[in-house]
């Protein structure tokens, strides 16, 4: 489905009249695809699980489900409560690109022993920031239906691709890269609360994490400037930093990533096509 149409349908779905029928296990929106988000509505007070993992349910019954890069071909959605139901979902698989990147400083491909403790501490900071569960129902309804690109430019890297740095296979790429000159403003793609604002992490350089609520967050990597602080509430479109090439990067770009309850989802599936220059 075209992402613009998908976002429009989602916005209409989420803003439906309070008396609309609950979706339950049948009328689901979004995409059951690796890297995608799915949503629905159940009677308030229901419990929803995906493969046994509890999903956040908003006070009025809306819920989200997310699928990681390597999600299995099927997933079990179970609703318990006033209107129990169960559905086995078919999850579409994707083909991912293999990218070879040369010229990365070898110390960031194979970190020296003296940097391992720093990397461990920084990883703990990121995990803690993403583990927060901010409950802002109106934020979540707004952001899922109306994400905007945080920066515009050529897309130089895509979600799910496997990168080989200087001949050494790295972890899969979990974001979308937007090439832009150093100093280009980076905007909040939706309302959120800043849970991490670090100017110089070993791998990702200048890094910001923006919590959109109920386990959905955005991360912005390789920034040349970090213009916000932990605890700041940022409206959609607010400037949070600037594009750079800090950390493990070979040129200026924005690496935008998203997570939902620990699953890495594809930001590009939640925004309209990149505007033309």
UniProtKB/TrEMBL annotation:
Pfam families xrefs: Peptidase_M23
Keywords: Signal
InterPro entries on file: Cell_wall_metabolism_enzyme, Dup_hybrid_motif, M23ase_b-sheet_dom
An MF annotation (GO) of this entry: metalloendopeptidase activity
Residue intervals of the M23ase beta-sheet core domain: 172-267
Keyword Signal: yes
Coiled coil spans: none
Cleavable signal peptide: 1-23
Official protein name in the record: Peptidase, M23/M37 family
Species in which this protein is naturally found: Pseudohaliea rubra DSM 19751
Lineage: Bacteria, Pseudomonadati, Pseudomonadota, Gammaproteobacteria, Cellvibrionales
């Amino acid at each position: 489905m075209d992402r613009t149409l998908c976002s429009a349908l989602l916005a209409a779905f989420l803003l439906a009249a309070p008396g609309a029928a609950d979706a339950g296990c049948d009328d689901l929106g979004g995409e059951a695809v690796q890297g995608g988000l799915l949503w629905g509505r159940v009677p308030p007070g229901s419990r929803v699980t995906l493969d046994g993992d509890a999903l956040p349910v908003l006070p009025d019954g809306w819920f989200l489900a997310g699928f990681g890069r390597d999600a299995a071909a099927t997933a079990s959605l179970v609703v318990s409560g006033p209107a129990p139901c169960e559905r086995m979902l078919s999850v579409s698989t994707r083909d991912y690109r293999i990218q070879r990147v040369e010229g990365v400083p070898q110390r960031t491909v194979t970190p020296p022993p003296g940097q391992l403790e720093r990397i461990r501490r920084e990883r703990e900071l990121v995990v803690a920031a993403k583990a927060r569960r901010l409950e802002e129902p109106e934020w979540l309804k707004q952001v899922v239906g109306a994400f905007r690109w945080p920066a515009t430019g050529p897309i130089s890297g895509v979600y799910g691709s496997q990168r080989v740095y200087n001949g050494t296979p790295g972890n899969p790429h979990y974001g979308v890269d937007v090439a832009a000159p150093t100093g280009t403003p980076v905007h909040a793609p939706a309302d959120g609360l800043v849970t991490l604002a670090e100017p110089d992490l070993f791998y990702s350089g200048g890094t910001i994490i923006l919590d959109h609520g109920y386990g959905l967050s955005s991360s912005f990597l390789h920034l040349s400037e970090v213009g916000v602080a932990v605890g700041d509430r940022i409206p959609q479109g607010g400037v949070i930093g600037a594009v750079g090439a800090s950390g493990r990067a070979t040129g200026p770009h924005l690496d935008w990533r998203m997570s939902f309850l620990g699953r890495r989802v594809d930001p590009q599936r939640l925004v309209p096509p990149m505007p033309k220059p």
